Amino acid sequence: MGYAADKLVAGSEHEEKFADDHVSLSWYYRFLNRWGFLTGNKRPEELDRAKWCTAKNLLKHYDVVAQALLDAGIAVVNPEFDPLLPYDEDLPAEQQPKCQPIFITDPTRIVSFDETSLSVDQTGTSKGSEERIVRDGVEDEGASLATKGDVSMTGVGGSNGAGQSLPPCFIYSGASFRPEWCEGAPTSAIVDPSTGKLRPATFTATKKGGMVHDLGVHYVRNNIQPCFPDISPEKPVVLICDGHGSHLTYELVQYCRDVGFILVLRPPPTSSISQGEDVENFKVLKPKFRVAKCKLITDMVSKGLAPVLKTAHLMGIVCGPWMQAFDQRRCQKGWKEIGVVPFTRVVYWRLKKSEAAKVQKLTVAGMNLDVLRFGKRRECEPAEGDDGEEDGEGEEGDEPQAKKGARFRSTHYWSKGPVTQDETLAILKAEDLEKPKKVADAGQVKERKTQENIVRATRNLALASEALAKLKATDNDVDACRLVVADLSAIIWQLTGEKPKGNRVQLVAQVKLLLPRTTPAATGELVTPTAIASVAVAVAVVSEEASVTRNMDVV
Q1: How many CA atoms lie within 13 A of 231 on its CB side?
Q2: Residues 480 and 512 sit within 8 Å (Cβ to Cβ)
């Protein structure tokens, strides 16, 4: 903290007050108290996240969302909108509508979704500091016990702008899942008119139980689309999500466009403040899910059962917390907290107010603001009117730019409009067409390296065989300690035909034990090229050291 204080003071009017340009902690804390700064503990934030979470980026996102809602015909322009009137929760009710650039006429046709991991493991750190315990006096340290396990699945959920939860999708890990694991699953708040019942959850399985690329289409087709029987390109639905890889594939974007979804991405990585699922739903789900696991384990212990949670327990644990986290009141609160329904843009105004307050206080206090500024990354391409130089610093709050030659990601086009537009779709299609070529090229490179390793291993085995025959013919002893690892491995393969194991010291010991034995190489008989080649493939795979070309170092 003292080093950070030195940096803040450097170059300011306060720098002359300190010997050796070093700020004492006592002065530092007096200074904070004098200017009304508060101290506390906070979890570290990734640098990229800090760069993205700016008022300027959030304003761009709101502009994209507003235009998408207007194009979809589910919002109208507010004629009384005052762009200079900042939104505040404490504004009088009659003033708040003037802060909204648009009025949403049909919130049921705005949809958001996201995914989260659900594991039976209890040893991972939670956002709470510690668990509460009861102790029997001062000398009793108490205990907080938890079960450990690698059973997990992914839950995908969301809601529409009216607060109705979408049908969830649960992704198990493995090649398949059992039907009994799906019993008692949470449902949607949207009624299926054909059955008169709430729309049920869907289930699938992947190798690691995660949201892989092809599952984006699965969720949109099987969970979201059935909630809108009248959807079409002429009567679209606006779909807002983050830029996860499964949300930005050519298959998903093309499907959304064909069906009638207008796909809008959030600024990466700002989902913690701009996504209702993270702001409200998952924030409620995780602690309730943790409590449900504790209750089940307590019941198991009280009944004399082993407190081991398995995949079969997951759905029974998650159902109650999921339904509570995605009830209509919480979903509506999530949409309100991110400033979309109603369209108050509240996150933008919060960031703008916070940024202005920090700058003002630090300026009045005479601190060096340059220490706290983030420069933007190097541009992919020079912007229009740019001189082409790549090492300049951008304006504070600009969105970080993707690196040149990087694969297409949400960082490229989230601020340029819906990704279902022609330009983005063309880029994704081109990348999709290049995938088979990239896979083939990678296979050719791997095959070429394998052949090179075989050639090198063959040469090394030949060197080992020749050296052993020569040493035997001259009645010289091999000083195994002078051999490199590759020579040692080759000799062991030559003499035993078995896979060399161990470090260099162990290999030396094996060679010393093997050399006195009577072998074809030890009697001066060279191994044939066919025999050498037969074990060369195994050497190339097992010992990477054997791929280094060199002569044996023998005295």
Answers
A1: 24
A2: yes
- Work out the percent of the chain whose per-residue pLDDT is above 90: 35
Give the strand pairing for 261-265 and 237-241. Answer: parallel
403 by Cβ neighbours in 10 Å (0-12 / 13-18 / 19+) ranks as exposed
Q: Are 364 and 358 in contact (CB under 8 A)?
A: no
pTM: 0.69
The count of residues in the chain is: 555
Q: Which single residue is written with the structure tokens 């340029």?
A: 416
For residue 150, CA distances in Å to 115, 117, 308, 363 come to: 19, 12, 11, 51
List pLDDT tens digits, range 258-267.
Answer: 999 999 999 8
333 burial (CB, 10 Å; 0-12 / 13-18 / 19+) is middle
Nearby residues of 107 by Cβ (< 8 Å), 6 or more positions away? 74, 160, 161, 162, 335, 341
E strands, 141-260, in order: 152-160, 169-173, 191-192, 197-198, 202-206, 237-241
pLDDT band of residue 307 (cuts 50, 70, 90) is confident
How does pLDDT run across 174-223, given as a tens digit for each residue? 888 999 999 999 999 999 999 999 999 999 999 888 877 778 899 999 99
Give all strands (DSSP E) within 372-468, no chain letters. none
